[in-house]
Here is the input.
Amino acid sequence: METRKSCYSAKLVYCGMWSTSNLVLAFAIKLYMAGVDMDPELARSLFEEGATLVLLGVPEGTELGIDYKSWQVGPRFRGVKMIPPGLHFLHYSSVDTQSGVEMGPKMGLFLYLQAREVLLAQWNQKEEDLDFSASQNLEEISRVKAGLRELDPFLGPYPYETMRKWVSLTDKLTQEVASSLQPLSGRIMAFSDVVPELHLTHTKDREEHNLPRNDTECQSMREGLERLPRMKLRPGTEIRFSDIPKQTYPEGATPAQITQCSIDLSYALDCLLEKQYKQEPLHVLGELQFAFVCFLIGNVYEGFEHWKRLLTLLCRAETAMHKRRDLYLGLIAVLYHQLGEIPPDFFVDIVSQDNFLTSTLQEFFQFATGPGVDGTLRKRAEKFKAHLTKKFRWNFEVDPDDCAPVVVELPEGVTLE
Here is the structure.
């Protein structure tokens, strides 16, 4: 095994308040990640102190993973053991039981596990999903705990070799933030679960809405598209991301203020933080990590879109950089790890569309290294800029396209003098 330094030596806070048993687990994890052979005593410590996911009835061939690693389920699979306490992302794709090859869309959920906790789920064949309702049955949980030793040969060990990456991608994401963002349905789905806005089952229903009958031939592609039902997300399945303010200036703003607030998005950022993270503004970085994990691991494109919008808001808030030093020091650390995990060819396909990332970061570096910025933040930004320039060969010195005049719409009734 490759020798690694333990992320837990400096990140015990990841698992919250540590009891004596938790410290035993942390020490065992540290030895494991440092490349120490898995001797019987170490294995026993990890097994007894770690959390366990007992997943029964998962069809063979199902792709199932936790955090940064996934596997194809074999015939003996009954769950995952030796899971370190803290926040985890369980994800899976159902398999066609007839062919055993075709995979369904990925589903996932964030779980917060305690030391020694046992969580029980049964595969629902009809829904092609895991049913965790059995975990509410204390008698059933006690029975499973009592038989955990016999179940051990059927449990796969947690992939500690990828834990360092997982912690680096979620170190700002708390249990509370993850719970507030996760859909009410409890599942994050790669493909949106949509339903028609209007249920027009019969011809008479369409006639009542002045829509053409479905049994008549379309005369054009446009007419055919217009006949398709308008869809919306099934209530409860949407990820509850924060609303990025569409209006970036205060009510009653002058034309000059509107222009300024359209260039410097600090007012819009303050509105979001006041509404969503008033008690702890740094939790917005947890939301940035949540969106990134949903996209990178959960294959949720909506996560990428929200990550872009939130990143734009943070990077273009010049005044906020003068007031929120810790937030922006944290942002640099978050981006360092996130950009390190994106495959190089990904930049060609998606991130580089409209030069989004380079232009956004260029503005960030321009503001973060400007006058009046905290010295530590300025130095950290300069080092991060040099790192990205070397790694991806991005040129942040050319004039950004966004230096062109900013065109903003004035509110109704407001005119320029």
